[in-house]
């Protein structure tokens, strides 16, 4: 068995004080640190939302649009986000208390201004891959535990892609290591992940 931990977007931008703050987003940091230190994992991967300043998911790029309204990007429906996680800004950095020394691989995403990338595996239009599935396959990962921010967007899309793109790999969601943007969206996300075959668990029930 080869186990990997996938930490989704534990960045300043999604924590209190950031540009797209998730309520209690910083509460996932100690959970991540504890799991990384546990010795359970052979590999730790952290994804990083890494947008150019003109990213098309930003309301600022669409005259007349306000953050959190629906809009369009390259002809597809797109939530209009506040500017967030712009490359080389503090907002895009990992939370300062996250133990970076335990991260083996950083997977950046969301660099193409014309498409959003909630999933750490591929863009929302499913055309371009980030390379994460190849990385995990090259390490012969058989169990993938994931957690992070935000439950209803990047965690959800990453978990569903993990099931879809890594057949035979056991995918687990560590629920107490996640926080979401919208409570109704979080419930839908948990249902969708469970329906797809993701095991929903939490850090206290994970075998170290
Ligand atoms: C995310 C919205 C926009 C996330 C990223 O990490 O969940 N959400 N970009
Ligand atoms: Zn983003």
TrEMBL record:
Residue stretches in coiled coil: none
Enzyme Commission (EC) number: 3.5.1.19
Pfam family, one: Isochorismatase
Family: Belongs to the isochorismatase family.
Keyword set includes Nucleotidyltransferase: no
SUPFAM superfamilies, per the entry: Isochorismatase-like hydrolases
InterPro entries, per the entry: Isochorismatase-like_dom (IPR000868), Isochorismatase-like_sf (IPR036380), Isochorismatase_Nicotinamidase (IPR052347)
Isochorismatase-like domain: residues covered: 4-203
UniProt protein name: Nicotinamidase
Alphabetically ordered keywords of this record: Hydrolase, Metal-binding, Pyridine nucleotide biosynthesis
Species annotation: Rhizobium glycinendophyticum
BP GO annotations: pyridine nucleotide biosynthetic process
């Amino acid at each position: 068995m080869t186990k990997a931990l996938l930490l989704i977007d534990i960045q300043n931008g999604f924590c209190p004080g950031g540009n797209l703050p998730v309520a209690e987003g910083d509460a996932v940091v100690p959970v991540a640190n504890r799991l990384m230190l546990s010795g359970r994992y052979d590999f730790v991967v952290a994804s990083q939302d890494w947008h150019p300043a003109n990213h098309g998911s930003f309301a600022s790029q669409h005259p007349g649009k306000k953050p959190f309204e629906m809009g369009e990007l390259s002809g597809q429906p797109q939530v209009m986000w506040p500017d967030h996680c712009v490359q080389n800004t503090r907002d895009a950095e990992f939370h300062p208390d996250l133990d970076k020394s335990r991260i083996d691989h950083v997977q950046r995403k969301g660099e193409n201004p014309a498409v959003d990338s909630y999933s750490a595996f591929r863009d929302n239009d499913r055309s371009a891959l980030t390379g994460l599935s190849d990385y995990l396959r090259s390490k012969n990962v058989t169990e993938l535990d994931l957690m992070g921010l935000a439950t209803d967007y990047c965690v959800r899309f990453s978990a569903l892609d993990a099931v879809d793109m890594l057949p035979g790999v056991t995918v687990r969601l560590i629920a107490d290591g996640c926080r979401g943007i919208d409570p109704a969206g979080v419930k839908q996300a948990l249902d969708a992940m469970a329906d797809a075959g993701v095991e929903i668990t939490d850090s206290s029930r994970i075998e170290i």
